[in-house]
Design goal:
Structural class: mainly alpha
Radius of gyration: 24 Å
Number of helices: 1
Number of strands: 3
Strand content: 5-15%
Mean pLDDT: 86
Order of helices and strands: HEEE
Shape: elongated
Number of domains: 2
Helix content: 40-55%
């Protein structure tokens, strides 16, 4: 068996969830929930575009030099010991 996603299974599950939501909340409840989810997603994207997450700084434990996040060793002292800066 392959590790491909089963789109037909996800589609059936989404259809059943939509039918259950419509039957239990009605047309107005379903519409209100969909609109609020879309508004929340748009708000989150807008919030993230204004203040992107910064990567944590990495520094050498021996000399304290600030290193790039992909560094294997310190260019200043040659040490491979590092920690994440707060």
């Amino acid at each position: 068996m392959t590790d491909r996603p089963r789109w037909w299974l996800m589609g059936i599950a989404a259809l059943m969830a939509a039918m259950f939501l419509y039957q239990s909340a009605g047309w107005q409840g379903t519409a209100a929930l969909c609109v609020s989810v879309l508004a929340a997603f748009a708000g989150y994207r807008w919030y993230r575009s204004r203040g992107p997450v910064r990567a944590s700084g990495v520094r050498c434990l021996i000399c304290g030099e600030t290193l790039p996040s992909t560094a294997r060793q310190c260019k200043h002292c040659g040490s491979a010991r590092w920690t994440v800066k707060n």
